[in-house]
Amino acid sequence: MTPSARLDATFAALADPTRRAIIARLAAGEASVMELAKPFAMSQPAISRHLKVLEQAGLISRGRDAQRRPCRIEAKRLEEANQWLERYSAFWDASLQRLDALLGETQPGPSPRRRRKAKL
């Protein structure tokens, strides 16, 4: 799978609130399908379909422990998505710094951003 396809699969999987909640739960530690299904008003097969999407996106893995198939989070794909988002965070930081500089040139006194920080 190409990096672009992996990123597409990651964001598509995370677009669903149930799957984001499952990821949040797995961030606290591994859990069985039944444990993951408990807080949701849906059937175990429906949860299994969500888990399949997460697994295909590489966001979780499922092990085998006797009868139990514990799910665990796979941080690598989340890190790839975070790195992609960080590039745009740097863009917005640079844009805001340019805006601060422009406002500083046109208005006397501290920039609005600095005044806001000073109040905190």
Outline the structure in words.
It is a single chain. The chain folds into 2 domains: 3-76, Arc Repressor Mutant, subunit A; 86-119. By secondary structure, the chain is mainly alpha-helical. The protein has a two-stranded antiparallel ribbon with strand order 1-2. The protein has helices at 3-14, 17-26, 33-37, 44-56, 75-106, 112-119; strands at residues 60-62, 71-73. Helices cover 67% and strands 5% of the residues. A hairpin with an 8-residue loop joins strand 1 and strand 2. It is built from 6 helices and 2 strands, in the order H-H-H-H-E-E-H-H. Helix 1 runs antiparallel to helix 4 (44-56) and helix 1 (3-14) crosses helix 5 (75-106).
Distance between the termini: 46 Å
Beta content: 5-15%
**Largest beta-sheet characterization:** 2 strands, antiparallel
CATH top level of the largest domain is Mainly Alpha
Tally the helices: what do you get?
Answer: 6
Structural class: mainly alpha
Fraction of helical residues: 55-70%
Defining key terms:
two-stranded antiparallel ribbon, 120 residues, single chain, Arc Repressor Mutant, subunit A
List the helices and strands and how they pair.
Layout: H1 3-14, H2 17-26, H3 33-37, H4 44-56, E1 60-62, E2 71-73, H5 75-106, H6 112-119
Antiparallel strand pairs: 1-2
